[in-house]
C-alpha cells in the first residue's frame, strides 16, 4: 500500500468518527466509543487502523481506567467485519498499560451472530481477561443506567433501531455477561437486576 493510500485510510477513519473518546460512565471512567456500522472492514488497511489508534487514541488512555462502548447497531458482517486475524492483530497492538486500564466493554445492540462469534472465538482471541469484561446491552435505556447520557453522542440510526426493537416479539433486556463472575466481580456494574432473556435478532 502506498503512503498516500495509507494516509487516506487514516483520514477516512477520522472523518467517519469510528473511534472517539467521549463522555464518562457512572463510575467516572472515560469512554472510548466505537461505531461498528461505519467501520469499512473490507477495504481499510489494518496497519492504517493500528497507526491511527497508536497516534490518536491510545496515548489518551494510558493513565486512567476507561471503558469501551462498542455500538454494533446495523453492522453487516459482509461490510464491517475485517476478519479474525485482523481483529487479533489490532488487539495485539494495544499497549499493555492501555489494556490494563480497560475495565469494561459495553456491547450495544448485540445480535445472535455476534454473540455466537464471541462465545466461540472471544476467549481464544482476547487475553488478559478482556472477554470477561464484556457486557451485552440490548437497549439504550439500560445503557443509560451505566453511562452518563448527556456526555456522549449517539447517532440517530441507533435510536431508530432501538425503537424498532419495541415491536419485536422476542428481545434481550438489560446488561449481562457470558461470565457471571470474573475474578470475584459481579456480572454488572450496578445493583440493577440482570435480565436473562436471550436476544435472537
Topology of helices and strands:
Blueprint: H1 3-16, E1 19-24, E2 30-35, H2 46-57, E3 66-71, H3 77-80, H4 84-92, H5 96-101, E4 102-108, H6 112-125, E5 134-137, H7 140-143, H8 156-164, E6 175-176
Parallel strand pairs: 2-3, 3-4, 4-5
Antiparallel strand pairs: 1-2, 5-6
Helix pairs in contact: 1-2
Describe the structure.
- The longest helix has 14 residues, at 3-16.
- Strand 2 (30-35), helix 2 (46-57) and strand 3 (66-71) form a beta-alpha-beta unit.
- Mean pLDDT is 80; it is low at 171-175 and 179-201.
- The chain is globular, with a radius of gyration of 16 Å.
- It contains eight helices and six strands, in the order H-E-E-H-E-H-H-H-E-H-E-H-H-E.
- The protein is an alpha/beta fold and 201 residues long.
- It has a six-stranded mixed β-sheet with strand order 1-2-3-4-5-6.
- The protein has helices at residues 3-16, 46-57, 77-80, 84-92, 96-101, 112-125, 140-143, 156-164, and strands at 19-24, 30-35, 66-71, 102-108, 134-137, 175-176.
Quick overview:
It is built from eight helices and six strands; from the N terminus they run αββαβαααβαβααβ.
Core attributes:
201 residues, disordered C terminus, six-stranded mixed β-sheet, alpha/beta, 8 helices, globular
Runs with pLDDT <50, length 5+?
171-175, 179-201
Structural class by sheet pairing and helices: alpha/beta
Number of strands: 6
Distance between the termini: 38 Å
Main sheet makeup: 6 strands, mixed
Q: Number of DSSP helices?
A: 8
Overall mean pLDDT stands at: 80
Strand order of the largest sheet: 1-2-3-4-5-6
Shape, principal axes of CA atoms? globular
The arrangement of helices and strands along the chain is: HEEHEHHHEHEHHE
Helix share, percent: 25-40%
Radius of gyration: 16 Å
Beta-strand portion reads 15-25%
